[in-house]
Fold:
Amino acid sequence: MTKYFKRYKIQSKPFNPEILSSILWELEIQGINEEDDFLFVYALQESSVNKHLIIKQLKKLRAEKLIKSFTVEEEIIQNKNWNEDWEKNLNVVKISEKVVIKPSFRKYKKTGNEIVITIVPKMSFGTGEHATTKLVILMLERYLKAGDRVLDIGSGTGILSITAIKLGASSALAIDNDDWCYENAKENCNLNNVENKIEIRNCEVTEIEEKDFPLIISNIQKNVLKEIAPEFKKSIKRNGTLILSGILEGDKDEMVEYYSALGFKFIDSMQMDEWIALVFKLG
Structure:
């Protein structure tokens, strides 16, 4: 049976693919291809995504003065392996002297004590190329203690949980509310031989009953991080560490103030391009 996709061509001024992608991934999409001056966004024909919803998301960026204008074009295309077109642009990413992220279809020879993590992306967010993923990994190197139990909220491909295990965490609970991410994360855990140390769940953060995690990580859009902040407080251990990203540099003060009001103490930040990661301790 022939399968069809909805494809949206999105242009904006100024054109910032990372900012556009961050808000489009909130929708029920299957993937994003970045071209020279526009994005192709793909959704299953039967999905709830439509031109109106995409325009609504882009209007948020315009209201925040992150873009001045935009256009959206919609078409229905027959299934072809557009995933291959996307894969052509994915390369080995050297996050630090210690951590390297390798797509499964690329070859890489490790040197020294490098930790090489292999990912089958399949359009789940978290290929190692986005600044926010890099920032969380760098913060994991800085703050993860050997033996930590990690809670990963919005786990995508599972890349952050896998990295945490490779850096010395004893176990990780990785959750995402997307079926696609659930299957992809399980595949990646098996590929990196950490399936016995990472539990993947397809659920909402409100469904988590486990508590007292020494370390929680979450790389999600700012508004979601604010919405689920009380859940972090319920799940984290006293004096535990919370690493957040998916936040633009202009939102730093707002997020620090918001989390401080909940009893978290701001201890560190790191910036890459226009994105930041924030680290808090529960006082």
In short: The mean pLDDT is 89.
